[in-house]
């Protein structure tokens, strides 16, 4: 009886051992097969080939951190040399208009990986003292960038300063010029609001908008008031057209940039000959702030400064109507020159 049990046990062990050896041999053979197949059909070869146009832009997105360090002054000269970084003169300038949305436009364009912005207004072309420092001083104020990136700066005073068109033309006669405009009366009130806030911070008094915008002697629009004069867009544009063809200008709708920014940004991308990279993902509406904020990636979001979107004071409706009638013929001429029409009163 004991002998039979031992024989049965040896038989079971033999079967289990055979199964184990067979499994090991199968795995060895399988791995060997995979190793032989790997060079013939690597996984990477089954992926679609990358788009050559996108490669440098994706690379730039990973290198934004380095550019950020440069702006803070933390990058070394060796890093600058290794990454072939340069300070380039701008190939596009946002020349105006004040209170039209120049800061919002610049920050939104900076979402594009091929765009690098000058963080501060340089005021090179409209300030005689700065201009006398020369073009190398101006270049030194530009951010570091990769050679195929476009540097953009914005100084809204450029649009209304008489000497600026000729000075920019001497630097680069083929430069691209961006002008962002809003409904002229709304822009004038916004201009007044910013100045008023500055006066109040210094505990200074300031006239009401109506008293500044309307000449009390003639009861007509006061064209000597700077906020009114700036909103006569066609007068300033005509001075620029003495140096640059209209094709080098792109008009941005500042009112639409507030309510629906993406279509406006896509038009600018085309004007600058940039591949379309800014998407709805990059823009989200902040209900608390009342306007769109920027999403660079999954961890970095940015909203404009709290000073943006100031509440305007109430203005006498009769003054608003008078201003709208005054601006109307200038607006019509602006539409004709630029080829872009707005639903302004």
From TrEMBL:
Q: Which cysteines are joined by disulfide bonds?
A: 293-303
Keywords for the protein's UniProt record, in alphabetical order: Disulfide bond, Glycoprotein, Golgi apparatus, Membrane, Signal-anchor, Transferase, Transmembrane, Transmembrane helix
Q: Which GO CC annotations does the UniProt entry carry? A: Golgi membrane
Broad class of where this protein is predominantly found:
Golgi
Q: What is its EC number?
A: 2.8.2.-
- Source superkingdom: Eukaryota
Q: What does the record give as the reaction this protein catalyses?
A: alpha-D-glucosaminyl-[heparan sulfate](n) + 3'-phosphoadenylyl sulfate = 3-sulfo-alpha-D-glucosaminyl-[heparan sulfate](n) + adenosine 3',5'-bisphosphate + H(+)
For the protein in the UniProt heading, the enzyme class is: transferase
Gene3D superfamilies (alphabetical): P-loop containing nucleotide triphosphate hydrolases (3.40.50.300)
Q: How does it sit in the membrane?
A: Single-pass type II membrane protein
**Full protein name:** Sulfotransferase
**Residues annotated to bind 3'-phosphoadenylyl sulfate:** 99-103, 182, 190, 292, 308-312
Q: Which family does it belong to?
A: Belongs to the sulfotransferase 1 family.
Catalytic residues, per the record, are 99 (for sulfotransferase activity)
- Note whether NADP occurs among the keywords: no
One GO MF term: [heparan sulfate]-glucosamine 3-sulfotransferase activity
